[in-house]
UniProtKB/TrEMBL annotation:
<dbReference type="GO" id="GO:0016787">
    <property type="term" value="F:hydrolase activity"/>
</dbReference>
<dbReference type="Pfam" id="PF00561">
    <property type="entry name" value="Abhydrolase_1"/>
</dbReference>
<dbReference type="InterPro" id="IPR000073">
    <property type="entry name" value="AB_hydrolase_1"/>
</dbReference>
<feature type="domain" description="AB hydrolase-1">
    <location>
        <begin position="32"/>
        <end position="133"/>
    </location>
</feature>
<protein>
    <submittedName>
        <fullName>Alpha/beta hydrolase</fullName>
    </submittedName>
</protein>
<dbReference type="InterPro" id="IPR029058">
    <property type="entry name" value="AB_hydrolase_fold"/>
</dbReference>
<keyword id="KW-0378">Hydrolase</keyword>
Amino acid sequence: MVYIHLSKKTANDKVLIEYLDSLEESDKKLVPLIICPGLSETAEEYLDLLEAVLPRRSIILSFRGRGKSDTPDRGYNLTEHVSDIEAVVKQTGISSFHLFSYSRGVSYALGYVERHKEQIQSLIIGDYPPEHRAMPHDWPEDYINNYLIPYNRTANIRPEAVWGIQRESALINLDDMSLSMPVLVGRGKLQESLITDTDLDRYKKMCSNITVKEYFQSGHNLKGTEKKLFYTDVTDFLDTLSEGFN
């Protein structure tokens, strides 16, 4: 079966942000899900998650510099990535939703939660610590030449965006929030996960209602070998919570 999704763009100041929306296939009684992809990921790469959670409405954005969104010359710090989420939320008109995030998208999602905690019914965190990381000076060339080009991903994230992220990124700890909504944290096996035991303790201190799922056949890439299990855990988590919202 081919599922219908809407492809739209919204203006964040002068930057057009693409998002995909399963509105036409959705059950209006279910709380929607907003999906924040990882560093070089696009909205299109999460269509399988959109389908997995149907009939729940899902909205997936491509952050600036990724996918079909615009690539500005500047504007790649945490605040401006958070504003991409804000622009999509405003355009769609939703006021209450679940929030899924993966890898560096976690820092963007946590930045959004810090500003709009009252909107978030639950938070799903995919293998990233509660912080926005500064990127090393030598990172862009290595990332572009040894990952994006060999794996044909320069259309997923433009080199200009990679350089902008490195130039404008700064370390910002995001673990000083107190979160009462249900939180699901997924991490890969310890040696290869970006969530250390110390990071997991940070999440446990932040969150009064936390569920931790570990994927022992995965490293950081939870959407590789164990993607089906990861997505099943996500949908089960959401379906259990939705009983209180219908």
